[in-house]
User: Fold these one by one.
Assistant:
Number 1:
Amino acid sequence: MGTDNPEGFPQDGEGPIRAVTLDAFRIDRSSVTNKRFRAFIEATGYRTEAEIFGWSFVFWSHLANPALAEDTVAAAPWWCKVPGSKWDAPEGPGSSVAKRGDHPVVHVSWNDATAYAAWSGQRLPTEAEWEYAARGGLVQKLYPWGDKLRPGGEHRCNIWQGDFPNHDTADDGYVGTSPVEAFPPNGFGLYSITGNAWEWCADWFTTGPERATGREHLRGPLSGDARVMKGGSFLCHKSYCNRYRVAARTSNTPDSSASNVGFRCAL
């Protein structure tokens, strides 16, 4: 687990490389789709935190109606606070997932993901489980398929191409999310485990030495302020967010949501 590769972000706590022992587990072939999440909503009447708060973050060039954006993030002005943006209106009012049933659900917080997982009789994967699954049986490779981002010139995940954040050339075929099975699976049969949408993990986030003990059943610290997210998204680009590597990681507060954050479940 982890990496010492110079392409990484040491400040994210990606290293050191260490051995971790896990029990056997199952994990979803793909992230949870809009279709599957809709079944949860219809069965339970659940309201996501984006709906309760009344807004979520949407990438600037994807806004259904730019006039609705209320504010931007100072450190990342491409993120817009948009009232009415939520899982079934991912670009804000006027947008829909009607033709995106097989795309990953987004605008879900860690708390929302945990609620879905409990309803479905599952849970979120730990970071160690997620990383083991993402590696697909390979050892210390950058990506789920090897060390080359585009082997033979073939796109293997949905990330940004072009000049971030100004122009996405969509050379991989997509601007925004793609169907969860749009690209070949890894060696364990898992689809889009990197790129497309960030995926929540069960663990609290830390960059401290407690995550590098190598103890069995590693689950991270017992408390914290933010939860781990893995896998990168359709907005990741080598010039800014080279976090579609298997060992890459980031975090967000459990009540946060955005148009590039989803999840998959484990057992």
Number 2:
Amino acid sequence: MTQPREIRMNGRFAGKIAVITGAASGIGAATARRFAREGAALVLADINKSAGSNLVDELSRAGAAAQFVPTDVSKMAEVEALMDAAFARYGALHILFNNAGIGAYGKTGILDVNSWHQVISVDLDGVFYGCRAAIPRMKAAGGGVIVNTASISGLFADYGLSAYNAAKAGVINLTRAAAIDHARDGIRVNAVCPGPVETPALRPVLMMPTAIDEYAKLVPMGRIAKPEEIAAVVAFLASDDASYVTGTTIIVDGGVTAATGQPNFSRLLGE
């Protein structure tokens, strides 16, 4: 796989306070490193206390200001406590990256009801709780930025992932609603829609013998993304470079959703 070029910028987020959920691994951890490299002070949230604390130690050794707050985003009280912790330490909140998410496999007709509720509570309720807790604080400060992790699975369906599909579709439209509700408050709200990304969540799939070959066929760019490639888009949306961008979703999928889903006729023809 081609490695993404590391982009180094200094100071784009200097003086900014950013809260990231689902920060202990994958896209969240990559975004935390990106934000820290660009000058942000961070409050990181995850249910994985060990991994979250290790990431804070890593960032602190590199000279970044970072704090870890164990948080289950499916519980509104814990999300409120997370925002309180950010204010207690820094007195401000400029950026929220609602990134925590889970999935559950099961066809619609047999999906366990508890699995359905768990996915919806983390992936959709958690985003709502984050927005609800952050927006009044941002509004009082004159504005802010929220970026939500949606998915191409919120735009189209996957076999056996109905709960995840429904939750991520909800995130996309919640993003639009929050954006128009609070545009006049100086708050921008956008979403990123990744395709397949090399994260711990996808690792069990990638361990299947034919998975890499299957992705190579399905993704026009011929590979899955690195978390850092998604983090770069999140950083753009969170920055002043996107000052007139709100209520939109940016697809980062290597071209997956550019195709109709029909067979690759070029491959069939041997071209």
Number 3:
Amino acid sequence: MKSVLLGGRLVVASHNPGKVREIADLLAALPITVVSAAELRLPEPEETGSTFAENALIKSKAAGNASGLPALADDSGLEVAALANEPGIHSARWAGPNRDFALAMRNVEEKLKAAAALAPAERRAEFVCVFSLFSPGGHHHEFEGRVSGHLIWPPRGDKGFGYDPMFVPDGYAMSFGEMEPQQKLRISHRARAFNKLLEFLR
């Protein structure tokens, strides 16, 4: 897997520009040429898994088999303790067919209010990311990262994507949406999963 990957092309199995950009930034220091599934016009597979790991594998396997290249997929989402860890694997679906995350954040906030979760301690949440690295030869590895924090309302910042503007990581006063991309990359769930991937590649 390592010899096939390093020095060659890697498909990032996502059609989400923000996610592709973050992953490409993380991979920038490695001798890898990144191409997205959208650039290759690969279809998006139906995510029928019940966990982040299962959905990540579905996406990486589909992209790897369709392109004939190693593929890296990320499945990630927001788990809110007061909402029984929802939206979880359905985080993107809460944004609707147009991927309207302003709508998704409002949905989360309305459910928190309905649950009387108003104080920061009652609004605990985790961002979760699982990377799935798949080779067309059938080799597969996965790497998980998590970051804990609490949710705020109204959302703040326009630098991130998804639920970033309403998530404040532990130890910080800024939301992910207010952080510069490089600052977020140092502490995010995606960065933590990527560090495990990097250890594997090294």
Number 4:
Amino acid sequence: MPISALQHLVFCERQWALIHLEQLWVENILTAEGRVMHERVHWQDREVRSDVVVTRSMPLKSSRLGLTGKADVVEFVPAGVKSGTDGIPIEGRPGLWKPVPVEYKHGKPKVDRSDEVQLCAQALCLEEMLGIRIREGAIYYGRPRRRHVVLFDENLRGVTEEAVLRLHHLTTEGRTPAAVYRRECRSCSLYEYCLPRATSGARSVSQYLGNALDELDVE
């Protein structure tokens, strides 16, 4: 399963199902700006500075979790130790280097943990691939252009592993969950297809049709 599906799932299980089960995707101004940001991030595969090695679009995979994907950026910074499980050697450079996954998001920090779960899943993949422990990563938000440090503590790791189990369960089940209307629904590019205010909860046929017409702005 794609790592990016975890972000959709934690944010909204119905959004995840519409995208990944029903293959429905509609772009709005927010998704378009986010796509452009990612294209800029991935423009150069690798960059080397004196104290950091930056790798872009790094392939990720976890056989244990059944996940695959790419990291926007993985920064390798000096681990400050000569041995241990916090770093790996890099050819031509002294000492050990610890990987720091960095995810780029166009918008602002969310009230839920969907972005953090996506980033933590990337770290879990890297840990399995490299055989080391990754302590933290970062999310760069386009609004307000600030980097947010994410600690991969036991709580976040547990939430991420539970989300992975839920992802595989819902995929096997193959059923699109019912809508649950929230304030955040208005910014979703699938809003006009999901119709959360019209379809959430138990309603009569007349209530459903009335709400559906309101959603579509039909008089």
